[in-house]
Design a protein that fits this description.
Low-confidence stretches: 1-10
Distance between the termini: 21 Å
Order of helices and strands: HHHHHHHHHHHHHHHHHHHHHH
Strand content: under 5%
Radius of gyration: 23 Å
Number of helices: 22
Shape: globular
Length: 518
């Protein structure tokens, strides 16, 4: 009964995070729609997207995205043993994180010009100078992200998912408002919105929520657990995997593929990440506290069942979503982005990029969940080493083949890197912990894929007929094509699945029931 209760709580957490991520992805799409409408696939948009390379790398170097993973297990143990000492440990982590982020962002601001030339080697001198100014505006956001991640870790520890779920919504909303309302040239307003959104959504809101829940921060710079914390975090700081650097490679090598390539790759990636965020990220974030608790108690069999359930349910949701999106790539890009400065030629150029990136999404989701399984066992080194190996192997391919050949090969190498990384993590886990966590996953995925193939073909045909036959503006015809193709896909997939493999529909029905109940 306790196991079922834990799984139900994990499912409820996944619903909260999934809803948040879905809304944040929608806000992200709206943000990119505003950008594409005003600037299209242009050099100005390229500079904006490239401006995130250095701040994101600083975030990776400080393991900003993994503060919760490294901090939660240690902090949970200290709270159980000595609450006052737990607050001292938290304070020590917070102040060192804040100091390190201020130092690195300050140095990056001083060296913004040479860094801009390094991250965008294909840009002209004028573009590089403007990229440096964008970089100086965006850099302070990392201070707010890292400090706020410490507060969010406290909230996650206490199973309070609502406030962290609001962070990306406020962040994206501030970017949109900054771009639309600030009277500054070009995309500078969007850059100011980045820093404002990080301050409000990532730092101030979690701080206020943690404060209401008894937050105690003291001036503390030493603690016996800091050494262990650094040992856990160090692999995440130094071992940047192909997954973490995936977006940065698209920007860096995209700058060598001509004007507009960085923008097109960024727009396509934004769409491809929607199913990952709604399914994979939600499942990974929600499952981690439960996996960590099971690992700490040594309940190996229950751990394997929980990991298996997370993988199976995620892939059962994700594969049909991806197959439909492959069929609907053209109307999707046409409806979301075409208009203003983003013309029909840009839409056609972005479609193969989206389709290539969609192929990585099941593997992206799998590595996110399996990576959390390693982290739950206190092993941050293995995913870091595996990811670093794949990253180093992919760089020559990007340099010598993909970048000279254009945007589609860059997207293809990006996809291949994620696939190899996911398979490598799976094999390492199987050798160390056995294959129980992966029982039935390949069979279920192949079964799901086979049921999706006729539905994908039917959805593509229906969408094409709508766009060809309807005397509507391109955006409205694309919207009708999406609705019609989606309905055709749902019927052609769900009806056979209901008869032949009803277990494939169980995760969707369960999620719908939990969503309705909440």
């Amino acid at each position: 009964m306790g196991i079922l209760t834990a799984q139900h709580r994990m499912g409820a957490a996944a619903v909260i995070m999934g809803a948040s991520i879905m809304l944040s992805r929608f806000m992200g799409l709206l943000r990119d729609k505003v950008i594409s409408w005003q600037f299209g696939a242009s050099g100005e948009a390229d500079m904006y997207f490239a401006a995130f390379v250095v701040p994101d790398i600083i975030n990776y170097l400080l393991a900003g995205g993994y503060v919760s993973i490294t901090l939660i297990p240690l902090l949970a143990s200290r709270f159980q043993e000595d609450e006052q000492d737990a607050w001292r440990f938290f304070s020590c982590v917070f102040w060192w994180a804040l100091a390190a982020s201020v130092l690195l962002t300050g140095l990056a601001a001083v060296w913004a010009a040479p860094l801009a030339a390094w991250v965008a080697p294909g840009f002209s001198e004028t573009q590089t100078a403007r990229l440096a100014s964008f970089l100086r505006i965006i850099l302070p956001a990392q201070v707010f992200f890292l400090g706020g991640a410490c507060f969010s870790a406290l909230l996650f520890l206490r199973r309070q998912f609502t406030v962290p779920a609001l962070t990306p919504l406020i962040y994206n909303g501030a970017i949109i408002l900054g771009g639309l309302l600030l009277p500054v040239p070009g995309m500078e307003g969007f850059c100011w919105g980045v820093t404002a959104g990080a301050a409000l959504g990532a730092f101030i809101l979690p701080w206020m929520a943690a404060r209401q829940d008894g937050l105690h921060v003291s001036w503390q710079w030493r603690h016996p657990l800091m050494g262990r914390f650094l040992l856990i975090a160090l692999p995440l700081m130094l071992g940047q995997s192909v997954v973490m650097l995936n977006e940065q490679f698209l920007r860096v090598f995209g700058s060598l593929a001509g004007d507009g390539a960085v923008s097109l790759l960024s727009y396509a990636r934004r769409i491809a990440q929607v199913p990952v965020g709604m399914v994979g990220q939600a499942a990974a974030v929600a499952s981690y506290p439960f996996l960590a608790a099971l690992a700490a108690r040594g309940e190996a069999e229950t751990f394997d069942r929980t990991l298996n359930a997370a993988l199976k349910s995620s892939l059962a949701l994700l594969i049909p979503c991806v197959m439909w999106m492959l069929a609907a790539a053209l109307p999707t890009m046409r409806f979301i982005f075409q208009g203003g400065q983003f013309n029909a030629a840009d839409t056609l150029a972005s479609v193969p990029l989206l389709q290539l990136m969609l192929l990585m999404t099941p593997f992206w989701t799998a590595q996110m969940i399996i990576g959390r399984a390693f982290y739950a066992h206190g092993d941050t080194l293995t995913p870091a080493l595996a990811g670093t190996a794949v990253t180093l192997a992919s760089i020559p391919v990007f340099i010598f083949w993909a970048a000279p050949a254009g945007a589609p090969p860059i997207a293809a190498v990006s996809t291949l890197g994620v696939l190899v990384y996911a398979l490598l993590l799976t094999e390492i886990w199987r050798r160390r912990h056995g294959s129980a966590a992966f029982a039935g996953i390949v069979r279920q995925s192949c079964q799901c894929l086979l049921l999706c193939l006729p539905a994908t073909a039917a959805a593509w045909w229906a969408g094409e007929r709508c766009m060809e036959a309807l005397p509507l503006a391109p955006a409205f015809a694309a919207l009708v094509a999406l609705a019609c193709g989606g309905l055709v896909f749902a019927l052609c997939y769900a009806l056979p699945a209901w008869k032949l493999a009803p277990e494939l529909l169980a995760p969707l029905l369960s999620r719908l029931r939990r969503g309705a109940a909440s």
